[in-house]
Task: inverse folding
């Protein structure tokens, strides 16, 4: 069964840069009054989300648009090409909304609701689902850390089951360089656990990645090594080296 999370929340380097695992607003390039509109486009060698490939190990084209209010409330949409077969089709659309803001100078909060949509009618299956999420970010001087949780409650598209995902992301810029190094560790318990998706009976498992990126103007280029627990299936749950180039507007 192919399922995804956003995009964000895949573990391509672009997802890590946004805080993975949950949908994050693109960097603001312009501000006009209380409303900010931003966009992003990316090409990745493999759409990995929570360690699992949703593009069959092949490249994917991705992009999104976010609208944020100065109060902290935001809405957005993000899409990616996928290799979902007859059940999930060739496109994933994520629609989300929430609130993010600073609790203190060093602590931030992001809470919201995400809807995963797969606009295919090949088999007439119920594949769309909802997932509330929340994360807390910490400014650690030269480094940043995020801890978060996403919970997809029981839904028909998950086989009547639920799914819990908890994770932490770390990033740090190398002094005097445009390079940022990143690390990610996640744990899934439920219908979307990597071992279960790969055919194992275990409905829990870890995913991880480590990577680095370079930013130049609106472009970010990066590479990351991604892995998951459970059976290794080529182009699905095998360890992979993922390259991504992202443009933010």
Result:
């Amino acid at each position: 069964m192919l399922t995804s999370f956003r995009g964000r929340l895949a573990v391509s380097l672009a997802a890590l840069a946004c805080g993975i695992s949950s949908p994050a607003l693109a960097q603001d390039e312009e501000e006009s009054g209380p409303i900010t509109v931003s966009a992003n486009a990316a090409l990745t060698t493999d759409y990995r989300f929570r360690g699992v490939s949703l593009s069959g190990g092949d490249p994917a084209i991705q992009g999104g648009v976010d609208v944020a209010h100065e109060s902290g409330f935001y809405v957005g949409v993000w899409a990616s090409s996928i290799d979902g077969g007859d059940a999930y089709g060739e496109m994933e659309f994520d629609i989300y909304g929430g609130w993010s803001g600073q609790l203190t100078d060093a602590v931030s909060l992001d809470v919201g609701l995400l809807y995963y949509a797969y606009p295919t009618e090949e088999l007439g299956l119920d594949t769309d689902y909802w997932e509330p999420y929340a994360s807390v970010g910490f400014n650690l001087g030269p480094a940043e850390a995020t801890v978060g949780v996403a919970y997809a409650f029981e839904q028909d598209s998950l086989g009547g089951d639920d799914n819990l995902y908890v994770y932490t992301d770390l990033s740090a810029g190398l002094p005097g360089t445009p390079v940022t190094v990143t690390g990610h560790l996640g744990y899934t318990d439920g219908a979307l656990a990597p071992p279960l998706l790969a055919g194992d009976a275990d409905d829990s498992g870890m995913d991880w990645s480590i990577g680095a990126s370079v930013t130049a103007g609106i472009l970010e280029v990066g590479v990351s090594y991604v892995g998951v627990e459970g059976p290794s299936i080529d182009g699905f749950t095998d360890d992979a080296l993922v390259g991504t180039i992202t443009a933010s507007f």
Summary: DSSP finds three helices and 14 strands in the chain. The chain has one domain: 13-248. Helices lie at 13-18, 85-88, 194-197.
